[in-house]
Each structure stands twice: as structure tokens, then as C-alpha cells.
Amino acid sequence: MLLALAVAAGEGLQSAIKGATGTQAQYDFFHGRLLAIKQMQIHIVENRLEFSTGYRELLRGDQAGLQEAVGDAEKALVNADKQAQVLLAEAEAKALPDEQERARAVVKAFQVYKDMAQRSAQALRSGNEEAYYGTAMRAERRTALQGLEAATRAYLEASNQRSQSLIAQAQASASQAMLGNAVLLGLGLVLAVGCWLFIRSQVLRPLDEANSVLETVARGDLTGRIPQARHEIGRLMASLQSMQDSLGDMVIEVRQGVGEIGVAAQEIALGNTNLSGRTEQQASALQQTAASMEQLSSTVRQNADNARQANQLAASSLEVAERGGQAGTEAVATIRALADGSRRMAEIVTVIDSIAFQTNILALNAAVEAARAGEQGKGFAVVASEVRALAQRSATAAKEIKSLIEDSVTKVDLGSKQAEQAGELVQQILASVRRVTDIMGEISAASQEQASGIAQVNQAVSQMDKNTQQNAALVEEAAAAAGSQEAQTRRLQEAVARFKVSGAAGMQSRPQSQPAPRTRPAAVPQQTARPATARPATARPAAAMPKRPPALASAAAAPLSAPAAPRDDAGDWESF
């Protein structure tokens, strides 16, 4: 059947190749030359149209239009000559001898037309109407065009006949190919029916039997027997039988192993549960210890803050006392300056008193001399009397000012002594404040050291609390994993129990008794909460706790059914 189909396909491919080759040959045979001859005809028509345009411009007397039209006509003639040369080259390279002769005839007729067109262009360019449109030239033009048209028509008719011949050959080849393909297709169908009958009896029926056996195995029945044969499918049946026997042996071994694993998983789950309870007790005790340390740390921090504030107040007092001492020193200096000024003023007043006394003496002498002068010195005596009176008043005022200044100097001296005594007292106070400031600084430093030490202890206790809580979480995960293992063991027992194995009726899993109830140790009683500041770190940090895997979480959420026979291992785990 495959050979027939291959022959049919080869025949069809050969026919297709022949058809494609014939079509390509026909295309190659005609396309280049027909395109060249059509282009040549188009350029000849352009040449004639430009000649007509040039003759019309000649009649109108437009020399510019005439020269342009003659130039275009010559260009069209050059293009037509190129296409004629292409036609001749294509024919000599690809065409048959008779077609080559017809192509040469077309080119020869075009050369006749070309000579006539060149002479017409010269006559038209020179403006010789008689030479261009005379009777002789028109007759020559008509003859050249008719010869070119006859040669072109003969070439196209021969090409058309050749094309019809090629089409007829292609149609005959296609009909012959269709007939051969139909015969080969019929033979292929007959062979296909015969092969189908053979495959149905020798392949499909044994495969159906193997499929039914595999479906029985899929339902869990491993007791069936598979028919044997000597062909390839028979060897497949033997392999399936061997696989079924091996699978039955494996199921028996898995049943025995699952029972032993179930007992171990129950014991591990019970031990992890007890360990989880004790770890939670330890975490609760550490949590209370951490709360107490936090309260103590808060108290020490408060004392340190108070000592720091007292130290700041002492420093402020020291600064105020220093400013007071400086102000007292400046006041003493000012009082001393006032005392010096008062003494200087007393000296000045003494000088003024001396000047007034001397003025009084001079005025007295002047009065005596005026009295001696008699009537001429009477006016001078009056002036001297007035000067004397002024001198006496100045002396009296100077004495009063001197007594006041002396009294002021006495009081300033007394104030200066008192200010010096106050300055000494301020210096003593300043020394005492410095001592108090030093003592408060030492107290503040000691409080800071105590707060730092207690903070480190508190941090260590918090880290222990965090580690204990993480251990508790890990123990809970281990307990959940043990429970998950127990549940998976149970599911594996159920899965293995689905299989029916020959000779294994009495090899079911051993009956398992219910374990003792798992008791969790009593939690440590919580102490009464103190009214101190709440410790934020006592709650279990979510970020520090390792995330439980989804498989373990789902397994822990699954209810635990009755495991294997229990053992009273509470004493062992208690000692652990």
C-alpha cells in the first residue's frame, strides 16, 4: 500500500513538474520578445505623434515647439530601435530558426522605417515642408509602415500558433497524469482495506485485551491473569504480567512498612506534643521575667533622668552664682571708682575754697585802697565790696560741698568694704555650688551606667524570650509535622488497602489500638500585672517567628485519627 501511494505521489509530482515546466517554458518563450515588440510599436506610435505635432507647429510658425516635437520624435525613435535590438537578441538566444527569421524580418522592416523617420526629422527640423510632406515622402512613409506592420503581424501570428501548440501539449500531459493517478489510487485503496483487516486481527484485538487488563489493574485488582501469545503483542502481554506480579509484591511490602511507620509516627507526635507544652511554660516564665526587667529598667531610667535634670539644675545654679560673683566684683570696682571720684572732687572743692579766700583778701585790699583814694575810689570800693561778698558766698558753698563730699566718701568706703565682703561670700557660695555640681554629675554618671547595665540585661532576657518563643514555634511545627506524617501514613495505608493482591488476604495491616489521650502540661499561672509601663516586646514578634510551611500547616489542621498501640512514655519525656 505504501509503495502504491508512493508511486501515485511520484506520478502526481512528475505531472505537476511537467505542467510547471511547460508553463515556464511557454512564458520564457514568449514573454521577452512579445514585450520588446509591443514596446517597439508603442515608441513608433509616439514617434508618429510627435512628427504630427512638429508639422502642426511648422504650419503655425512656432520654431520652439517645432524643435521640441522633433527632439521628442527622435527620442521615441531611439527607444524603438533599442527594443528592436532586444527583440533580435532574444530571438537569436531562445527562439527556433523560423522565429529568428521572422524576428530579423521585423528588425529589417523597422530599419527601413527608421531611415525614413530620420530623413523626415531632418526635413521637419529645417522647415522644408515639401521634403517632409511631399508626395514621394508620404508614399515612402506609407510603404515603410505597411512593411513594418506586415512583418510584426506575421511574427505575432506565428507566436500565437506556437502558444496554442504548447497549451495543447500541457493539456494532454495533464489528462495522462490524472488517469495514472486514478489507477494508482484505486490500487492504494484495495491495499489499505487489506492492511486494515490484518491490523485489526493481529494488533487491535490484542491491544484491546491488554487495555482491559490495565483497567483492572487501575481499579486495584492485581489477581487477574493476562493471556499469552508468541508475536510482538504477546511479548508485550508477558511484560505486563511481569509488571503486575512485581506491583503485587511491592504492595505487600508497602503495607508492612506503612504499619511500622505509623507506630513510630504516633510516638514522635506524642513526644513533640509534651515537649511543646514544656517549651510554652518556659516561654511564659521568661516572658514574666522580661516584664519585671522592663519595669526595673523603667525605674532606673527614671532615676537617671531625675539625676540628669538635677545635674542640669546644679549646672544652671553654678552659672547663676558665677554671674553673681562677677556682678559683685564689677560692683566693688564701680564703688572704688566712685570713691576715687569723690576724693578728686574734694580736692577740687579745696582748691575752690582757697581761691575764694584769696579773692576775699584781694577784695579787702582793694577796698582799703579805694578808701585811701577818697572820692575817686568810691566806685571801685563798691565793686570790691561786691567781689568780696561773692567770694564769701563761694567759700561758704565750697565748705558745704566739701562736707557733703567727705560724707559721701565715707559712705562709699563703707559700701566698698561691704561689697568686698559680699564678693567673698559669693565666692564661697560659688565653691559650694561647684562641689554640688560635681557630686550631681557623679550621681548622673552612675545612674547612666546602672541604666545601661540593666538595659543590657533586659536585652539579653528579651533575646532569651525571643529564642524561647522561636523554639516553641519550632516545636509546634515539629509536632504538626509529626501529625502530618501520621496522617499521611494513614492515607498511605488507605491507598495501599485499595489493591487486591493474590494470596494476600490475611496480610492486611495490623489492627491498631487507640493511643492514650495526649495531655498538655498545665501552664504556669500568670502573676498579677504590675502597674508599671507595659512592655511592648512581651508579645511574640511576628517577624521573628519562622513561618510554618503550608504543607505542615495543613497537616496540623487535619484531624488525627487513632494511631497504633500506645506506650506510656510520659516519664521519659518529663525527664527530657
Describe, in plain words, how this protein is organized in 3D.
This protein has two domains: about 1-190, Up-down Bundle (Four Helix Bundle (Hemerythrin (Met), subunit A)), CATH 1.20.120.30; about 235-575, Helix Hairpins. The protein is flat, with a radius of gyration of 70 Å. α2 (about 65-95) runs antiparallel to α3 (about 95-125) and α5 packs across α6 (about 230-375). Helix content is about 85%, strand content about 0%. It has helices at about 1-60, 65-95, 95-125, 130-135, 135-220, 230-375, 380-495, 550-555, 570-575. The chain is mainly alpha-helical and about 575 residues long.
N→C terminal distance:
81 Å
How many distinct folded domains?
Answer: 2
How are helices and strands ordered from N to C? HHHHHHHHH
Radius of gyration: 70 Å
Classify the helix fraction into a percent range: over 70%
Superfamily (CATH H level) name of the largest domain? Methyl-accepting chemotaxis protein
Query: Which structural class do the helices and strands define?
Result: mainly alpha
| Beta-strand content bin | under 5%
CATH topology of the largest domain: Helix Hairpins
Report mean pLDDT, rounded to a whole number.
Answer: 73
Describe the sheet with the most strands: none
